[in-house]
Amino acid sequence: MDEGQYPKEFLELLNAITNKRARVVIDHIMKYGSITTQDLETTYGYNHPPRAARDVREAGIPLETFKVKSAEGRSIAAYKFGDLRQLQSNRVTGRILFSKDFKSNLYLLNQGRCSICLGSFKERYLQVDHRVPYEVSGDLNDRVEKDFMLLCGSCNRAKSWSCEHCKNWKDLKDPLVCMNCYWGSPENYDHIALEAVRRLDIQWTGDEVAYYDKLKAIADENDVVLPDFVKQLFVDKLDNGQ
Is 137 helix (H, G, I), strand (E, B) or coil? Predict the structure, then answer.
């Protein structure tokens, strides 16, 4: 792409960014106009493409997410530079890394569980995440455990996708909105990305797996998807006052 179409301030900020994943995204967009999640996975070997896009956003560069078709015809995400009026040159260094002690303290406080799905994981499989996304409030001067959460890779990807498509992320940038959201306070929330939605993540482990298998077998016999079947069980119990 022709660099002449971009403002000088924007190009200076791009050149100042040294984060490796962010540079891959930036350089590819500068050359081809956009980059897809498939590009990031197959060409550059990143198993979590949204994380690379977040690195760019956290450095102050606005990115727009849109849908394209993959080589196999699947609908996938792609990224291109967004509204340059939202450029945030004060974020060029990105977020500050967390110390091992900080993560270990969170791990002990959370009893080794992901804050969203409550699954138990070894510490290395959990990632420290801001309750209020960096894009909304920036990095916090005081590192207090209550302002952060540990997420497994799957939940971190789900949160990233949901937050990046939320009006609060794009326009409002109100931290209180995030703290009343499932992704910021899964234990006590009133919306998910500003939508009137409630969510319950359940995992069956160990001896509990047998109960899951029985539930699924009954749901399959009745030609009902398992989440709908489980919800109906709850509804029946509540309606019967049990």
Answer: helix
